[in-house]
Amino acid sequence: MSFNKDNLCRARELRSLSKTDLAKLVRTTHQNVSNWESGARVPKVEMVRRMARALGVPLDTLDPDFAADLATLPGLGAAEHSAASHPCAGRPPWLTELCRHWDQVPYATQKVLEAASLAAIEKSTREVTHK
Questions:
Q1: Residue 15: helix, strand or coil by DSSP?
Q2: In the structure, what pLDDT confidence band is assigned to residue 89 with cuts at 50, 70 and 90?
Q3: Confidence class for position 33, pLDDT limits 50, 70, 90
Q4: What mean pLDDT comes out for the span 20-31?
Q5: Residue 104 carries which DSSP code?
Q6: Distance (Å, rounded) from C-alpha 75 to C-alpha 66?
Q7: What is the DSSP letter of 93?
Q8: Torsion sign across C-alpha atoms 93, 97, 102, 108
């Protein structure tokens, strides 16, 4: 992995996030974010994925080798991997579109949508069990 600390810093600043803000979004400490941005440490792959998701950037922005690593998997290039592994693959188009842009939805709105979705699921579950 060739983590790009400069891109992490730029992406965070472009989104007007403090190190503490980013740390909260990816469930880590301010000190870890500082260490990654200074180059003192390199984050684990899962943390790079969380940061890319939180910052709304492609993984290869933070790790340029990401696409190359995927291309080395037998029969699974980067394009096939992203389409096949997408959590909304095969779902209705509106859901797929929402899912693809989820990282761009403000956090407070995400929480409202999550609560509404859970309430709708709970309601439909109750209706099915009471029939």
A1: coil
A2: low
A3: very high
A4: 94
A5: G
A6: 16
A7: H
A8: negative
Q: What span, in angstroms and rounded, lies between the C-alpha atoms of 63 and 58? A: 9
The three-state secondary structure class of 28 is coil
pLDDT in tens, 55-86: 888 888 888 776 554 444 444 344 434 444 45
Which of 68, 118, 109 lies closest to 59 in space, CA to CA? 68
Q: Where does residue 17 rank: exposed (0-12), middle (13-18), buried (19+ CB within 10 A)?
A: middle
**Phi and psi for 122 in degrees, rounded to 5?**
-65, -40
Structural tokens at position 88: 């909304």
Task: Round to whole Å and give the CA distance between 33 and 51.
Answer: 10
Question: Smallest Cα–Cα separation from 55: which of 93, 97, 104?
Answer: 104
Closest CA to 50 of 65, 68, 32, 38: 32
Q: Count the neighbouring beta carbons within 10 Å of the beta carbon of residue 14.
A: 11
